[in-house]
Amino acid sequence: MAEGQTPGGGSGQALLYLTDEQLRQGIEAMFFAYRGFTADPDRILEGLSYGRAHHRAIHFIHCAPGTTVNNLLAILGVTKQSLNRVLRTLIEDGLVTSHVGRSDKRERHLTLTEAGEALEQQLSDAQRARMRDAYRKAGPEAVAGFKTVLEAMMDDDMRRAYLALREGR
Amino acid sequence: MAEGQTPGGGSGQALLYLTDEQLRQGIEAMFFAYRGFTADPDRILEGLSYGRAHHRAIHFIHCAPGTTVNNLLAILGVTKQSLNRVLRTLIEDGLVTSHVGRSDKRERHLTLTEAGEALEQQLSDAQRARMRDAYRKAGPEAVAGFKTVLEAMMDDDMRRAYLALREGR
DNA sequence: TTGGAATGTCAACAAGACTGACGTATTTTC
DNA sequence: GAAAATACGTCAGTCTTGTTGACATTCCAA
């Protein structure tokens, strides 16, 4: 507890960006930015009877078509009961299809239907538009720094999942 | 819809960081990083009967002691009824005090008690520790870029609230 | 002084997370 | 071939945290 005000512990100058005050600002920036980050898709989903949970499922099924339920579970970090509620409505509404696996018939492979892809596009366009504006305002060097810090902030297994998704494309 | 793959529209090279794929990566990085960001405080609060909402209230009351309920409402972006439930438990448990305003008796001014400050320290230390590690790994230039992008990602009124908090200190 | 606006409280409800228990099909292991 | 493990679905119940609606108090201005 009571971490020092100058965490470097004597190296001075170069570590000014690690003061408690700087860190607190970063924490608040993260909080407010995340609100903006989710605001646009939330607005779109409001009208339909879907929520953020549906958005996340749709996003990752789009990224990894044919993924299994278990896979999705690991990425989203929720329980299967929780995911199942979401998936059931998406399948009922014809946005997602579930196919029994060929090699392993216990698995269900999830894919977006045409309607599902359309909604994904709509949500993704809105979120990317904000992201693009932010990136453009900030410039390429800032964006590189942004990603570096975010990556360092993840838990180890989340970073693995993140990097795996990048490679998969 | 169907935003182009190279959004610059001809400028080529310099705008490669604005491709849909780059933006998508940023979106996912944001998602995974936010999970890490909240993981440590969540773990601490798990044992106590508090959640993330309590953490947020405590954080901002700590930053602006004596703030009113309405003020807090604007920052947190929830309904007053929702905030009230959280505040009630915090007051009952002796972590927050609520004083009737002197000039305007409708207002309640909120402050952390000693116990409240202690919990704030504990939560904040945990969150800062992760932030500090991430910052240290990433280096000062990356951190500057990180903040620039986050700030550009906020809604206008959120950015105002964020900057106001920075100035207030 | 009276009526409207602002501040905050109480009650009821919904979304979405969680745990725990159970059932079924399939695969793997001994 | 029988037993254990895996993948998935479901039912039931709880918790946090958001919502709306109704209401009390206080302030201010017509």
Automatic annotation (TrEMBL), chains A, B:
GO terms for biological process: response to stress. Pfam families: MarR_2. Signal peptide: none annotated. It comes from the Bacteria. Keywords: DNA-binding, Transcription, Transcription regulation. GO terms for molecular function: DNA binding; DNA-binding transcription factor activity. InterPro entries: HTH_MarR-typ, MarR/SlyA-like, Tscrpt_reg_MarR-type_CS, WH-like_DNA-bd_sf, WH_DNA-bd_sf. Residues 20-155 form the HTH marR-type domain. PANTHER family: TRANSCRIPTIONAL REGULATOR, MARR FAMILY, TRANSCRIPTIONAL REGULATORY PROTEIN. This is DNA-binding transcriptional regulator, MarR family. It comes from Marivita hallyeonensis.
